[in-house]
Amino acid sequence: MKTSTKLIAAGAAAIIGLNALILLASVSTVAGTMSVIASNTAKVSNAICRTTSTGSTSSTVDISPNDVALKAAQAFANAGYSKAATAGVIGNLQAESGFNPTAASSDGGYGIAQWTPRNKIQKWMDANGMGGRSDSDVEVQTKMLANTAESSFNDHYLDNVKSEGYSVDGSLLDMWKQASSPEEAAIAWMAGWERPNWSMRNEDIRTTTARQYYDSGLDSITFTGVSTPDTESSSSTVNECGSTSTTGSDATYGEVGGAPTDRNDFGWMCEWGHICTDGDGLGNRSTDTNFYKFDIAGYQCVWYAWNRLAMIHGGGWTWVSGNGDQIAGNAANAPGWEVSASPKPGDGVSFVHYNHVAVVEKVEQAGSGWRIFVSEGNFRDSSIVGHWNEYHTRWVDQSEFSGKRVFFRRPSWTK
C-alpha cells in the first residue's frame, strides 16, 4: 500500500547486471508495493489436492491454503468480516507479496500488504502495545491489516470500477464489506485499498485467487460476521504439505534435454504450448495453450521459467509468486516446494546478485564443484519488456550463487 505512483518492476530492485527483466505487476499506490505476480491465474500458489470450480469453468487444481494467508483470513474473520470480503483480501495479498511478510520493494514497501513507508508498521505496533516485536512478524502484520482495513480505503478509483460494469451503492469500502462474491470483494479491495496503477492492476490474478480460497481454501475458518476478542495467536493454520529447505551437499549431475542452443527466439516451444510466433503465449490469443500466459512485461524471465518448467514436468501444480530473485525464497515458505543449495536438472534457479530466474537444463562437475547450463528469457536487452528474440542459454559457475539456497523444485517432479 503506497502513496507513490512509480512504475517500477513490482517489488523489485533496479535491474542489475544482465538485462533480465522480471514480471511487472501490481504497482500499488496505497500499500507500498510494486509486487511481481508470478502466480497462476487458474490456481493458487501452494499445493493441496482437490477439485474446485472457478465459476464458469471447473478444473482440478493443486491448492493448499498458504500459512500466512490463513492467519490473515482468521484475523479478518475475528474482526467480523464476511468470507467473501476476506477472500477478496487474500487474493490481493497473493498479488502484492505472495504472502511473504518480508517482501520488500525498491520504493520502500514492506510486508504482506507492502506498507509504505515501512515504519508504518512500527508506528502501529508502538500504538498497540507490540513495540517490542519484529515488523516482519506475521501475527503483527495480519492484525494490523485487519485492524486498519477500513481506515485505509478511499474512492479514487470508484469511477474506474463503475466503468467496468460493477454496480456500486455507496463507496468502495461498502462494496468490499457487502460483496456477494469473492471476485467483487477482490475488485473493491484492489481499487479502494491497494490502489495499483490502473493499467498494471492484474485484477485477474486477484479475483481468481480470491475465488479459489473462497471455494476451498478457507474451510478451517468460521465466519460469524461478529467481531471476536483479539488473541495473540490464532490457530487456523492448515499446512498439510509443508515445504522443505535443504542445504544439500551434492549436485545431481545430468541433463534434461530439449532446450535448443542454436536459436534466440521462443518458437521452439510451438508444439508444446502453441508459442509459434511473436505474440503467442501471452494470453492474448485464443490459440494460447501454454502454462503461464501473463502479458505483463512480454517475454520476460519469469514468463519463460514457469513455461519451461511446465514443459519439462507437466502440469498439475502451481507457481510461486515473486520476482525472479525472490522465487526461491518464497518457495521455501510454500507448501509442496523445496529449495536447495545444490542443483538438479529441471530445477528453477533464482539469481542472487541480480533480479533474474532461469531453468537448469544440465548439471556437470567442474573442478571441485559443479556448474549448470541454464535456459532463460529476456537476457540480452535493457528494455523493460522481454522480447520474442531474447531466448538464451549459457553456463553458470557454482561461485555465482555463493552457497545460497537458490534452486527450487517440487518433490513430485520426476525429472
Give a written overview of the molecule:
The protein folds into 2 domains: 65-216, Orthogonal Bundle (Lysozyme), CATH 1.10.530; 254-409, endopeptidase fold (from Nostoc punctiforme) (Alpha-Beta Complex), CATH 3.90.1720. It contains 11 helices and 10 strands. The chain has helices spanning 67-78, 83-97, 119-127, 138-147, 158-163, 172-177, 182-194, 203-217, 270-273, 301-313, 327-331, and strands at residues 49-53, 58-62, 244-246, 254-255, 338-340, 348-350, 357-366, 369-376, 392-397, 407-409. The strands form 2 sheets. Strands 3, 4, 5, 6, 7, 8, 9 and 10 form an 8-stranded mixed sheet that branches. A two-stranded antiparallel sheet has the order 1-2. The protein is globular. The two termini are 40 Å apart. Mean pLDDT is 79; it is low at 2-63 and 231-249.
